[in-house]
Amino acid sequence: MTDREIEIIDAVGEYVDRKFGDNAHEGESYTEEAQDYFNELLDRVEDACNERFVLSPMLLNKLIKEMAQEMYQDEMATLTLKNALGL
Questions:
Q1: What CA–CA distance (Å, rounded) separates 21 from 59?
Q2: pLDDT value of residue 83
């Protein structure tokens, strides 16, 4: 694993810890909800980093926030569609 990959994983983990607060962990592990969120966000950030060159921790944090916002928008769109379909 490269230093850059470790930096991305750590930054995403810090974001998830802040987002979920006290509800992020069950003992040493993430809760199932936090782990699912971490995995999705990490995948999106890694994909975006393959398309962009992240130079600094500040730019990485900005990218993580952008991907989290995109995830939220996707979730809201899915809920709207399910509601419209009566599911």
A1: 23
A2: 87
* Residue 81, CA distances (Å) to 17, 45, 75, 87 in order: 30, 25, 10, 9
Q: Which of 2 and 39 is assigned the larger pLDDT?
A: 39
- Nearest partner of 38 among 62, 60, 9, judged by Cα: 9
Query: Of 85, 75, 82, 62, which Cα lies nearest the Cα of 11?
Result: 62
Dihedral in degrees, nearest 10, Cα atoms 85, 41, 24, 28: 130
Task: Report residue 51's pLDDT band, with 50, 70 and 90 as the boundaries.
Answer: low
For 1, which DSSP code? Answer: -
